[in-house]
Design a protein that fits this description.
heterodimer; A: mainly alpha; two-stranded antiparallel ribbon; 26 helices; globular; B: mainly beta; five-stranded mixed β-sheet; 8% helix
Chain lengths: 691, 1027
């Protein structure tokens, strides 16, 4: 009996411990097997798309490149071409604007390390999301291997593109491991220093080549138009290499560059000039051009007058482009409509041969800050707009006359005049009846007469006509809008007036109209993140800097380019842009001189990309920002009424648009929190390290 | 579970064995030392459970035993007597002597069962339950502070049903999710000590060091409390009753100024900031005379809302007894704590709006002797709580209003019958309305606990072997219903030209509506233990124990949509102990726990927690015995080991969550959309997360001397906590996460000592005892999740957990010259009379970078108690002081910062007495005192003066007469005639006196605003009977 009990006792105890090993009581994983797992996400096509969609989603909002000022984090709207006058608490004391980064605060450097810095975090979120995608997309059971490769390429493009956005805005940045950093490591191990600009550019360049190999498309169909193509990868690479070759990053020995170092004191902007970098940039542009899929967007010559589409105004004959048809001349195209339609939504993204990469309609989920918001903020008060996005006199002066000359009195007030005076006088009824000064209407300053087509597609000068053809109310259509004090759109004691008396019309579609600032009748406009004109002008710019000759392999190694300052090659970059704009070619003297041509190309970029966000970064990479951004902003004398219209057209300093530049404004500040969390991170010069 | 029940049953059935031999009849009489017969004394046969009789009215007994069996005579309050039956002696008369408390023979309940105190090598406090009972409270936790060495406790509220204390064993030693002790009642885990009826407690031990707690493995790091409840003893029925009622006043609540003082101060607050007066002289006159009570009332809200005190009633009856084969203990108790709000008498018939708490406890423990070697114990216990509060006045809301209304805010009721309110928000409803006119809330809690224990003596297998198996099942339910309403509320806004009051309607009336909810959980336990103890050669004592435990706890309500919430909290573990001692002189113990939690990933679930301890009982050495014969025990103990804490506060941190529906992308265009929403890790996984680990070291000694009259125990402890679970908040954004992972990153060190002494003796017929105890614990953060700080003093590491921080105040600015010559302060313009702060880092600006550690923590680091008991004939007297030290807490809020929320916030009487007043107002330059204890008054917020700083830090030290108790026991001669065993009447007082530097409200609450239901100062009368 006792023996039996003993046996039983031990069996009870041992069964207790046995239970531990078999059918683990504590194993809860069985309950969680039906929760969403990463495996399931990537096996399923729709969820894989969703994973990728989240990776793309950070391209929006604060990381948009062409947008209105809504996020106050997009430097694009803070250059010297375009400004905005609202959100200005200091001037108008509207409490809802309190603490918002307005144009003036920005221009005075009155922004800090901790506000408006979301783009740093969101770009890196996109980078991690894309990295996980790259690691896992091969698990998919519903996608073909070709599709999987293409999708992997897309994720790789997006990831490299986020680095590019960061690099432009913040300067050299930390590059994360390919698989994403192991977040379970301790803070010291996670801490990552900034790579040099060159390393960042090389990294993006290599990744973009890999992405171009993986991506299967040179052109996307309608439903996939905002996905990148091989061309998008190569074009981004070309721009990255162009930036890396530019004076700020190439051979920079300024104090600023000496102060921009990593945690070990290594200078992050290269102090040794390398001309070959320009050659590499040129070769990368050539890679895009040789794809043979891109062309500048152009509209055929139009002989019939239709609402919003007037008969083509042929540019004055130059004996060259005027004699030839596209692509060698402008005889069969409408330069004004070509440039205008590129932005105003008339041409769908998929039909636009110039568009290399675009967020299309994904700029923002918040209409108040997207391209449509730009339009509403350009439109006059009388037509239901906000009347706040305006243009500087410097920008107005940059536009050529239609024969390619400078406008009279150009930049006179900022000490860069050629001795000529600005035109006085206004178009008369008789002039208009006689068909002079097209497309000006009656009563417009002659300063705006006979300018190049891009001027008329971009500038809402005093007395320009807003078509608003879609407006059901006839009286609101084809209205001429003046900015005289006392008129409905002139100076008032609130933000809704144009400080310079010059407005912007780019992106406005003749059919666009609005009432009470609604977006319902504003046509959606595809974003122009990278267009072929970028590559063409980059090609010309890079070639112009060369003295030597370089043998550079093409992106896929299939051929070798011989790159040098070859005028004919440079013209392949400059001519299409000039032709599409309806302007004559630069003179031979221009082409002969590196310096002259450089300033021509800079001016061409200023005009061609007005308001598209290029100018802000261009001024910085050229190191022109200290001079250009600290110039006083000029404009019309908005205090004048219609009765004193001559005085209105006199160019005066705009007292409430100050402008300064200090070195710290080269790069956006890094937030204190990020510096506190990454012990190896270093701040951009001029910004504080900590609070 | 069925499996285990079946096994238990098998055991029961299989252990039935019986044997028969010839028996003899023994008779005799049992008397006390004065030869008075003892009625109802127990006579049992040693090692033969169930065979027992009791003496009759003459003290006589009769029992059948076998030769060489031992009779055991026992009676409550008397020393046990054992007599061996041998030879022909068939009459055994026994004279029993009254029991002496013997510290050496004291029994201690440990994790593995009961042990004699002399054998204990770990740091275990055996709490004298009698000491706890002196303190009349509905909550057990309120009795711990100053009574139990090793426990730091504080009570923060006196609200009925919430008047409990927070406590920590050896202080707070982690900043992780849980720093609270692991509580076991009869071997089963309980969340809440307060649901236990004090009268049911047989023993109460606190296990403090690693050797005592290692076997609880991943649950024992914060210390363990072991409670056993009473079981019946064979013998005649023994009935105990205790009935008491208390009148609960308040220890200390703030006093407020009257209307006229308020108005004058308000004027000064405005004038001193260069604004005009608020109350014109004629208005002050109206306030003084009270001629316009609608517009210029003068209400003492406190008097209106609060009664002088409230009553509590507590009653308890328990019965125990048993016969040959079974014993029982049954108890019922009832507690009622009434609230101190004044109620609207007209509603009395409908419902009660007052705060109120009622609790019924019951317990039934029945032991069956299934065989001579097998005992089966059944336990059923439970408690039902009901808590009542005013409709909108639950928790502290009503106190916020009481502190918010100033005497001039509104009258109680307008003369036209309108109900007043100062603000539109619910929180600004007038407190009297909140307490009486807004309906009522009811909360119920039901706890039912049942358990079965089987104890099998396995001496027949091998001597000293024993098996205990336990199974328990608990359910918990909590429900609440809020019946809420409010009247239309108005505010008088002056008078119009005709002299009629202009009414502003603040809020529309709401008819009564209700909201309801609840919570619930269910628990299962299984616990199997096999132990063996044996002595060899009279010198070697060896013991070994193995224990298997498993439990599951599942929440049954409020589970939400995440399936993680519905998975049971589970633990399983195997624990063991090996003990050895040589001649009660040298002791060596080894303990281990191998336990697991379901909350962690595979590979991180199980952990091994070893500990060892050793002791040397110096007093047993012959040279000590010879040289120091007055030393009864001197034992030096040392222990060291590892324990865990698996309460991370987060379910399954190793799992990630993937969510869809995030912002996505359109790969087409508006014309041809191809939209996808985003899918991403909404929570990343933290795969390596596991429990935190405590490495504990304890060095202590037990000293007993002078014929057991004096005892002293002291322990020094040093503990290092590592792997404290924390969310990692400071990963840089370059990592690219949408959520923060967690990890075991924190580390702390905690050091301190605890100890207690007792001395008892007598002067003639007066028996007296003095006892004291002390607990001091100081912790330091060694590591935690922190971002890079500019100045080293800004780190939390290197300082205490919850270290108070703030600016260093240098007094008040003397004049503008002083302001100009001082570093600039970053919180708005300052004027003379504002607080001046120290520029700690010397950067010329006083800002957030100048905040440093100031004072200590709000939780006291030191708790001590001192008690005195006297007994003379039928009288007994008990006195107990409790104190707390090393505690600093900030004060702030709408009352502390007078007028900071303009007219919302009353003014504390006395607080502004010593304030800085501009000479322009007082006409006396002496009132511009830079050392005044209150800065220049402000109307509206004053960011500079309201910064957390030493100016507003208060010393939380206090000493209080926690308990005073006086009792009279009726003489036995009288009592026995009434067929009672004893009757005692008593009067006691709680929290009668408090000494503290802090005068505004009760320092023990450590409340920074004082807006809290106050602790009670109570007087209790009661009677205890035994029959």
């Amino acid at each position: 009996m006792k023996k039996k009990i003993a046996i039983l006792m031990f069996s009870v105890l041992s069964s207790g411990s046995l239970l531990t090993s078999c059918a683990d009581y504590l194993d809860s994983d069985k309950y969680f097997e039906d929760r969403t797992t990463l495996q399931q996400v990537f096996e399923d096509k729709t969820r894989t798309e969703e994973w990728l969609a989240y990776a793309y989603s950070f391209l929006r909002n604060e990381n948009a490149e062409v947008a209105s000022k809504g996020f106050a984090t997009i430097p694009a709207v803070f250059a010297d071409d375009m400004y905005f006058g609202d959100r200005d608490y200091e001037s108008f004391h509207d409490t809802k604007d309190l603490g918002v980064l307005n144009y003036n605060k920005f221009k005075l450097g009155e922004y800090n390390e901790n506000d408006y810095n979301a783009s740093w975090g969101t770009c890196y979120k996109g980078i991690r999301q894309a990295s996980i995608f790259i690691q896992n997309v091969d698990k998919n059971k519903e996608m073909s291997s070709i599709d999987k490769l293409d999708y992997k390429g897309q994720a790789r493009f997006i990831r490299a593109y986020y680095y590019w956005l960061l690099l432009k805005k913040y300067g050299p940045i930390p590059i994360m491991p390919d698989a994403g950093v192991d977040y379970t490591k301790n803070y010291d191990e996670v801490a990552t220093p900034r790579s040099t600009y060159e390393e960042c550019a090389d990294f993006i360049s290599t990744e973009m080549i890999q992405a171009a190999k993986e991506i299967q498309y040179l052109k996307r169909d309608m439903e996939n138009v905002s996905r990148p193509t091989k061309g998008a990868c190569l074009a981004t690479r070309a721009l990255v290499l162009l930036y890396a070759a530019s004076p700020l990053m190439n051979g920079n020995t300024d104090d600023f560059a000496k102060k921009l170092v990593d945690d070990k004191g290594k200078q992050l902007l290269n102090s040794d000039y390398s001309e070959e970098k320009w050659a590499k940039a040129a070769a990368a542009c050539k890679d895009v051009m040789d794809l043979g899929v891109y062309d500048l967007y152009h509209v055929p010559f139009n002989t019939t007058n239709a609402p919003g589409f007037p008969v083509t105004m042929a540019p004055p004959a130059d004996g060259n482009f005027s004699e030839k048809s596209w692509p060698n001349g402008w005889s069969d195209i409408d330069p004004y409509a070509s440039y205008r339609n590129l932005f105003d939504g008339d041409v769908a993204a998929v039909d636009n041969p110039e568009l290399i990469f675009s967020r299309v309609n994904n700029v923002t989920s918040d209409m108040n800050s997207g391209i449509e918001a730009l339009v509403i903020h350009e439109m006059p008060i009388d037509l239901g707009g906000w009347n706040t996005h305006g243009m500087t006199q410097k920008m107005v002066d940059a536009y050529y006359m239609k024969n390619g000359d400078n406008c009279p009195g150009k930049d006179k007030e900022i000490g860069r005049g050629d001795g000529s005076e600005r035109l006085t006088g206004f178009t008369s009824r008789a002039d208009i009846a006689a068909g002079k000064y097209k497309p000006l209407a009656v009563g417009v300053s002659l300063q705006y007469a006979d300018r190049e087509p891009r001027f008329y597609a971009s500038v809402a000068y005093n007395g320009s006509t807003w078509e608003a053809l879609g407006d059901p109310e006839a009286s609101r259509r084809n209205r001429q809008v003046f900015y005289y004090r006392g008129s409905g759109n002139g100076y008032i004691n609130a933000f809704s007036y144009l400080r310079t008396g010059i407005g912007v019309k780019k992106w406005y579609n003749p059919n666009d109209y609005t009432t009470t600032h609604s977006y319902d009748n504003i046509k959606r406009k595809p974003e122009t993140a990278i267009r072929y004109a970028d590559i063409l002008l980059a090609y010309a710019e890079a070639l112009n800097e060369l003295d030597g000759t370089y043998q550079i392999a093409s992106w896929d190694g299939s051929k070798t380019y011989t790159i040098s300052r070859d005028i004919n090659e440079i013209k392949k970059g400059t001519n299409p842009v000039r032709i599409r704009a309806g302007l004559p070619d630069y003179s031979d003297a221009d082409y002969a001189s590196k310096d002259l041509l450089r300033s021509r190309i800079k001016r061409e970029r200023m005009i061609e990309f007005m308001g598209e966000g290029r100018r802000y970064y261009d001024l910085r990479r050229w190191k022109d920002a200290p001079a250009e951004e600290s110039l006083q902003i000029y404009g019309c004398n908005v205090m004048m009424t219609a009765a004193n219209r001559e005085q209105f057209q006199q160019v005066v300093p705009i007292y409430n648009l100050p402008s300064t530049f200090s070195d710290k404004m080269y790069f956006w500040p890094i937030s204190h929190a990020e510096l506190k969390h990454n012990s190896r991170l270093t701040q951009n010069p001029g910004w504080t390290l900590n609070d | 579970m069925k499996k285990y029940l079946f096994m238990l049953l098998m055991l029961i059935v299989s252990t039935v064995s019986a044997s028969a031999q010839n028996t003899i009849e023994i008779t005799g009489q049992v008397t006390d030392s004065k030869n008075e017969p003892l009625i109802g004394a127990n006579i049992t046969v040693k090692d033969a459970a169930g065979l027992g009789v009791i003496t009759n009215l003459d003290g006589n007994y009769k029992i059948n035993v076998k030769q060489y069996q031992t009779l055991v005579f026992s009676y409550i309050g008397f020393e046990k007597v054992e007599v061996l039956v041998k030879g022909d002696k068939h009459v055994i008369n026994v004279k029993m002597s009254e029991e002496k408390v013997n510290a050496v023979d004291e029994v201690v309940v440990t994790a593995m069962g009961t042990q004699k105190k002399i054998n204990v090598t770990g740091a275990i406090t055996n709490v004298n339950v009698g000491d706890l009972k002196h303190y009349s409270s509905s909550s057990l936790t309120n009795t711990l502070a100053g009574n139990v060495p090793g426990i730091i406790a504080m009570q923060s509220s006196g609200q009925p049903g919430r008047s409990t204390s927070e406590f920590w064993i050896r202080g707070i030693s982690t900043f992780g999710a849980s720093s609270s002790a692991y509580i076991l009642v009869d071997g089963f885990e309980r969340n809440n000590l307060d649901e236990i009826n004090i009268e049911d407690i047989e023993s109460f031990s606190v296990l403090k060091d690693a050797s005592a707690t290692a076997i609880y493995g991943s649950k024992g790091a914060n210390g363990v409390i072991l409670i056993t409840t009473k079981h019946g003893k064979a013998g005649k029925i023994n009935i105990n009753g205790k009935f008491e009622s208390s009148f609960n006043g308040r220890t200390k609540t703030p006093e407020f100024v009257d209307g006229l003082t308020y108005a004058n101060l308000m004027n000064e607050a405005n004038v001193t900031r260069n604004k005009g007066v608020v109350y014109q002289p004629e208005e002050l006159e109206l306030i003084r005379t009270g001629l316009d009570p609608d517009l210029y009332p003068n209400v003492d809200w406190k008097k209106l809302l609060l009664k002088d005190g409230a009553w509590s009633y507590r009653g308890n009856v328990n019965m125990s007894g048993g016969g040959n084969t079974s014993r029982y203990f049954a108890s019922v108790s009832y507690v009622e704590d009434q609230g101190m709000y004044n109620a609207d008498q007209t509603l009395k018939q409908k419902y009660n709006t007052n705060a109120n708490y009622k609790r019924w406890n019951y317990r039934l423990n029945v032991d069956f002797d299934i065989t001579p070697t097998t005992v089966l114990k059944l336990g059923i216990s439970g408690n039902l709580d009901k808590r009542n509060t005013p409709g909108l006045g639950d928790y502290e809301a009503i106190w916020g209003q009481l502190f918010g209304y100033n005497p001039l805010s509104t009258p109680v009721m307008y003369s036209n019958g309108y109900t007043p309110a100062t603000g539109r928000d619910v929180t600004q409803m007038n407190p009297y309305v909140t307490a009486t006119q807004t309906g009522y809330n009811e909360d119920w809690t039901n706890n039912i606990q049942s358990n079965v224990t089987l104890e099998q003596n396995l001496d027949f297998v091998t001597k000293g072997m024993r098996f205990v198996g336990r199974f328990g099942y608990d359910t918990y339910n909590y429900n609440w219903i809020h019946h809420r309403m409010w009247p239309a509320l108005y505010k008088a806004n002056g008078r119009d030209a005709q002299g009629n009051i202009v009414w502003d309607k603040m809020r529309d009336r709401s008819d009564m509506f209700q909201e309801a909810g609840g919570d619930g959980s269910r628990r299962e336990f299984l616990d199997l233990m096999l132990s063996w103890n044996r002595q060899f050669a009279q010198l070697h004592n060896i013991g070994a124990t193995m224990k298997f435990t498993q439990d599951a706890n599942i929440q049954t309500q409020n589970l939400g949509s995440d399936i993680k919430n519905s998975v049971s909290h589970k633990n399983r573990g195997l624990a063991g102990q090996v003990t050895y001692n040589y001649a009660l002189r040298y002791f060596l113990d080894f303990n281990f726990g191998y336990t697991g939690s379901e909350n962690f990933a595979d590979g991180h679930r199980y952990g091994f927690f070893p500990a060892f301890s050793m002791a040397w009982n110096v007093a047993e050495e012959s040279f000590v015995k010879k040289a120091l014969p007055w030393v009864n025990m001197l034992k030096i103990r040392f222990s060291s080991g590892k324990v865990g804490n698996d309460n991370t506060g987060t379910r399954f941190p190793y799992l990630y969550t993937i969510s869809g529906g995030a912002s996505g992308y359109n790969w087409g265009s508006t014309a041809t959309p191809n939209n996808y929403a985003g899918t991403f890790y909404s929570q990343v996984a933290s795969p390596n997360v596991t429990w935190e680990i405590a490495r504990k070291m304890d060095l202590g000694f037990d000293f007993v001397a002078f014929q057991n009259r004096f005892s002293l125990t002291m322990d020094y402890f040093n503990e290092k906590r590592t792997g404290i679970y924390m969310v990692r908040n400071y990963l840089p954004q370059i990592v690219g996460l949408d959520s923060n992972p967690s990890a075991n990153v924190g580390a702390t060190r905690s050091r301190g000592f605890d100890g207690n002494f007792a001395y008892n003796d007598h002067f003639g017929e007066v028996r007296w005892t003095v006892r004291g105890n002390i607990t001091y614990a100081k912790n330091e953060i060694l590591d935690r999740d922190e971002e890079i700080k500019v100045y080293p003093y800004q780190y939390e590491r290197g300082y205490r957990i919850d270290q108070q921080r703030g600016l260093i105040a240098l007094g008040l600015f003397k004049d503008y010259e002083d302001i100009r010559n001082s570093p600039q302060q970053s919180w708005g313009d300052v004027q003379p009379g504002d607080i001046k702060y120290k520029d700690v880092n010397g950067d010329g600006v006083v800002n957030d970078g100048d905040r440093v550690a100031i004072g200590a923590t709000s939780t006291p680091n030191l708790i001590y108690g001192l008690g005195l008991s006297l007994q003379w004939k039928e009288f007994d007297f008990n006195l107990h002081f409790q104190g707390a030290g090393k505690s600093t807490f900030p004060i702030y809020g709408k009352n502390v910062f007078a007028f900071s929320e303009r007219d919302w916030g009353n003014i504390f009487k006395g607080m502004l007495e010593d304030r800085w007043i501009s000479a322009d107002i007082s006409g006396n330059p002496a009132t511009e005192n830079p050392n005044a204890s209150y800065p220049r008054l402000s109307y509206g917020g004053n960011a500079n003066n309201q910064q957390g700083s030493t100016f507003w830090m208060r010393d939380g030290r206090y000493v209080r007469l926690k308990n005073l108790d006086f009792g009279y026991t009726l003489p036995k001669t009288v009592v026995n005639k009434l067929h009672f065993n004893s009757i005692r009447f008593y009067v006691s007082g709680q929290n009668l006196l408090t000494w503290s530097k802090f005068k505004l409200w009760d320092p023990e609450t450590l409340n920074p605003r004082g807006e809290q239901y106050p602790l009670s100062r109570s007087v209790t009368m009661g009677v205890q009977v035994n029959l």
